[in-house]
Amino acid sequence: MPKAADHIAEQVAMVATLEGQGRTYVIADGIYFDTSTFPRYAEFAGLRLDDLEATGRVEAIAAKRHPADFALWKLTPPGVVRQQEWDSPWGRGFPGWHIECSAMATKYLGERFDIHTGGIDHVRVHHTNEVAQSECALGVHPVGTWRDRERMIRDLQQQQKQMERQLQDAKRLPDSSRLQGQLGNSIQGAPAHGGPPEV
């Protein structure tokens, strides 16, 4: 199973690509993706950017240009040693949460792959950020179909109910041999050329 910690070089390379395109900016705690450089940012999840606030998962960072901007690389503060941190062109630190998915998917699945799954709670932030950074870095939308687990389960449950209804309907049909006999009698009594039967 691939591990994010084994793919730091790929993540750094993708951040460097975005930086080279002018899609990033640096603040005290890290390198951030500037969502204003990707005009379709809100489309994937149907977001209203004017209504966005800090998510609560992380505290608000005043230096961010927009609440939707997200970390690509977090810098380790002076005097702090973390369990997992690596050197990078921007300083010692660790990758942002979203970049690992884009970098690893690109390495193993290519620039575009068929299906991406995940929890419905990831659509508004994580998947939206994956789309933004991948599409900008690669020049293509990375995924053919996005399916969240909740919708997949709901779809399967609906299919199961439909199959159960069809099975019940099939059980209510007349016995097939009796039905064939009835059809045979009907065909024998039918007129040869579609006209009215003789009296």
Question: What is the radius of gyration?
Answer: 29 Å
| Number of strand elements | 6
Topology order in helix (H) and strand (E) letters: HEEEEHEHEHH
Helix content: 25-40%
Question: What structural class results from the helix and strand content?
Answer: alpha+beta
**Ends distance:** 80 Å
On the 0-100 scale, what is the average pLDDT?
A: 79
Q: pLDDT below 50 for ≥5 consecutive residues: which ranges? A: none
Biggest sheet strand line-up: 1-2-3-4
- The geometry reads as elongated
Helix run count? 5
Biggest beta-sheet profile: 4 strands, antiparallel
Taken as a percent bin, the fraction of beta residues is 5-15%
Name the features.
single chain; 199 residues; alpha+beta; 4-stranded antiparallel sheet; two-stranded parallel ribbon; 6 strands
